[in-house]
């Protein structure tokens, strides 16, 4: 079966490929996130070939992680599959025990699903923030901040939140001076979190604002590439000074 071949290939890569061998579960998480976004984009674009290929890339991340944990004798791919099988059956009694749950409406099915989820969590300590889904970091940050604000854990004013940004930037500068990679990453994350909080206080969506800036950057960089082509050149051959001059021209065009 293809899945068995894929599992064998993954095992071989972990044994013989230097890059694959060097990876850890932690180092690969960014790729799982990236591949999930690629799947979303392919589905939005509607290309069947791309959807199939991107789903394969996402599946690879599951197989890769499973192989690494199998090497630790924690669990393997079959255990992952069995876990989701058990969960699907457990959370769909209206399907697999239909005689006991006949003719449920969509709303009743949703209520039953939530009830079963709560039963699964019985005995576990639940945080006030537990219902916030793990997803895109900006969205998580905004939802966490909004929920914390509901119980009064919030800055009184936007200016107070902005002052926190300046404080975090100062701490980032200190970490950079000390050349401590772990501290640099931690302080950089604090800067982002604090800046998102300012956006929340201003009733701005961090995701929308960042996507707008990304679009602006892409547009201006495309202008640089177009100008380079008009000169029969490549951006790879341009100096920083030349690109900066074209960037300023692009800014003038987009602001006019």
Automatic annotation (TrEMBL):
GO biological processes: dATP catabolic process; dGTP catabolic process; dTTP catabolic process; dUTP catabolic process; response to stress; TTP catabolic process; UTP catabolic process
Fetch the SUPFAM superfamilies from UniProt.
Answer: all-alpha NTP pyrophosphatases
Q: Which GO terms describe its molecular function?
A: nucleoside triphosphate diphosphatase activity
Q: Gene3D superfamilies of this UniProt entry?
A: MazG-like
Q: Which residues form the NTP pyrophosphohydrolase MazG-like domain?
A: 23-96, 159-220
Protein origin, superkingdom: Bacteria
NCBIfam families to which the protein is assigned, alphabetical:
mazG, PRK09562.1
Q: What is this protein called?
A: NTP pyrophosphohydrolase MazG-like domain-containing protein
